[in-house]
Amino acid sequence: MSDVILKIRRQDGPNSSPYWEEFKVPVAPKANVISLLLEIQRSPVNAQGKPTTPVIWDCNCLEEVCGACSMVINGVARQACAAMVDSLSKPIVLQPLSKFPLVRDLMVDRTKMFENLKKIKAWIPIDGTYYMGSGPKVAPGVQDERYAISCCMTCGCCMEACPYVNSKTNYMGPTCMAQVKLFNAHPTGAMYKDERLDAIAGDGGIVDCGNAQNCERVCPKEIPLVSIIAELNRETAFRGFNRWLKGKPKSPGYESAPG
Amino acid sequence: MSQKYHYLARRLHSFTGIFPVGIFLCVHLCINSFIFKGPEAYDWAIGLLNRSPLTPYIEVCLIGIPILYHALYGVWVTYISKTNTLQYKYYRNWMFYLQRFTAIVTFLFVFWHIYVLRIARIFTGAEMDFATIAGWLSDPTIYVIYIIGYLAAIFHFCNGIWSFLISWGITIGQEAQNFVSCVCALIFIAMGVAGIAGLTLLSKAAV
């Protein structure tokens, strides 16, 4: 067992100031970053030999499907569970994601992503008061396309790497655009197609994308975010033109319904 | 910025970059290229634009207002971005950064260029011809500023074509985007070589 130096950017709470702390951690063969953090938790002593508080982080599945352990490892956003110590340059530098509110140390609050998913209606409307029958068939090609997007685990890496997700903008980030495509490509989900396109044509929407294309490079699930955003650029533009040229459809609504 | 017009404002910014600003850049450079046919041809070409009765209207509506909009909104768009090229050293991320860097360089260059060669002329009544331009460019400082400003402008234009095609959802797939990226690089090289040759010719032609 050899030792590895870990440099961790720590912060005791949302409003306290950050500081760096170094740890010297024994590393087992084929260890990942999470196992180093577990080692610190077992004996919270820093590289100077002083006892300290254990480093806080978030994790869940440990197999790169939940997205909870996203952090900035050696400058790049990725999952700590999938970051194998052998393949990382040393010393290993760990930082929390910078685009989300910090909870403590390496733990951030990714609620923002969930709020954004609500804005774009990232679901398929199947609830009713009666049996609505079986769902429509989906062509295998569409299934494949949707499957790739459905691998998204809202880990936040795309948002972390995006130059336009920052405190000066409300940009929802590439992940939301991918979810619009996922649900619009479903025959039942397509019932909200226009609402979703309108949502990403609004505040924090697709036009905030600046084509830096970092999102696709850092996406651990290799979702073709660049093509998805380009396709939705086309769809929102057509939707915008159509809405203006045709005008809003007249619907009676509940207020003017007879009786 | 009103949320309702956020989409429109940003897309108008993308659109004006090509139509008419990019188109005007090309027309402008085509006119300048007459330098390769000699001073008389050059004077005839710049005179062509100046002689048209529509020139003042074209200058204001098709050049001035769109450039102002593209430039001012562009400064805002650049301001709200948070570049991270040192962290994410990908080719496209560098191009993203350079697009914004050249935007600022072009902004400063173009407004200085327009002021000195167009607006100041209204007050001084100076004639715009081969002799004036060549004399002006024979100053090494101005020559270097022109080379830098020109390269920034054409980089911004060429990379802007690539970006425009994605922002309007024309090139969607990776292969189409890569193809356009190569074409834009070739356009940049061709425009760069021709432009530097033309500027050098002008700067050395002064008597």
- The side-by-side strand order for the widest beta sheet of chain A comes to 2-1-5-3-4
* H and E order of chain B: HHHHHHH
- The CATH H-level homologous superfamily of chain B: Fumarate reductase/succinate dehydrogenase, transmembrane subunit
- CATH class group of the largest domain in chain A: Mainly Alpha
Distance between the amino and carboxyl termini of chain B: 52 Å
For the biggest sheet of chain A, the summary is: 5 strands, mixed
Number of strands of chain A: 7
End-to-end distance of chain A: 80 Å
Quaternary organisation of the protein chains: heterodimer
Strand content of chain B: under 5%
Write down the domain tally of chain B: 1
- What does the overall shape of chain B look like? globular
> Remind me, CATH topology of the largest domain in chain A?
Fumarate Reductase Iron-sulfur Protein, Chain B, domain 2
Outline:
With 259 residues, chain A is α+β, with helices and mostly antiparallel strands. Chain A is built from 8 helices and 7 strands; from the N terminus they run ββαβββββααααααα. The N and C termini of chain B lie far apart (52 Å).
